[in-house]
């Protein structure tokens, strides 16, 4: 998974997940990969963009509806990951659910 | 500037800027810093979150209205930076303007 997602014409939805990690991997990398794979199999998934540096991680996933987002939030494997996230991987995070109303892009 | 922004209760707006850089700094770091400073002085600015790794940069800025976003887009110093961005700094980028409808966070 990498790069900028080719999303359809708006409207669609974005989940902006911003996080700060605890020290050490503690199984995070493997689980993150697994979650991305699982998410991409969900109905309504449009793509995901991720970047992480020493201060912050930002993952934006795109979805065709609020229902698709809700279904993913309640996915049982994802729920296990969410609990591990709170217990071990993140010192803090923020989740924002937003409706993309306009979009444009630039390519060389 | 760092960390997760304390945004007000939704609704508010997010500009999701995802980019891939050309090689080398070419004045980018300095300009990025300057733009962040300028943006933070704009009316309606709520905060910004940024992360960049080798593959992708994601900057999400938060605003209280579409008008505030429009004003920032049309800011003259910002326009100069936008042109430099296309000419020198980015191989490609995507801008998505979204209305944040729901948000929650976690802190240890």
Task: Note the topology.
The structure is a homodimer of 108-residue chains.
Chain A: E1 12-21, H1 28-40, E2 45-52, E3 57-63, H2 66-74, H3 76-89, E4 90-107
Antiparallel strand pairs in A: 1-3, 1-4, 2-3
Structure characterization notes:
The structure is a homodimer of 108-residue chains. In chain A, strands 2-3-1-4 form a four-stranded antiparallel beta sheet. Chain A is 33% helix and 40% strand. The first copy, chain A, is of the alpha+beta class. Chain A contains three helices and four strands. Chain A has a single domain, classed as Alpha-Beta Plaits. Chains A and B meet through strand 1, strand 2, strand 3 and strand 4 of A and strand 1, strand 2, strand 3 and strand 4 of B.
Report the C-alpha radius of gyration of chain A, rounded. Answer: 14 Å
Largest sheet of chain A: 4 strands, antiparallel
CATH architecture of chain A: 2-Layer Sandwich
- The chain-level structural class of chain A is alpha+beta
CATH topology of chain A: Alpha-Beta Plaits
Number of helices of chain A: 3
Please estimate the helix content of chain A.
25-40%
Ends apart, CA distance between termini of chain A: 21 Å
Largest interface: A-B, 41 and 41 residues
Instruction: Report the CATH C-level class of chain A.
Output: Alpha Beta
The assembly state of the depicted protein chains is: homodimer
Question: What does the overall shape of chain A look like?
Answer: globular
How much strand of chain A?
A: 35-45%
H and E string of chain A: EHEEHHE
Total strands of chain A: the figure is: 4
Provide the low-confidence segments of chain A as ranges: none
Structural domain tally of chain A: 1
Mean pLDDT value of chain A: 96
- Give the neighbour order of strands across the main sheet of chain A: 2-3-1-4
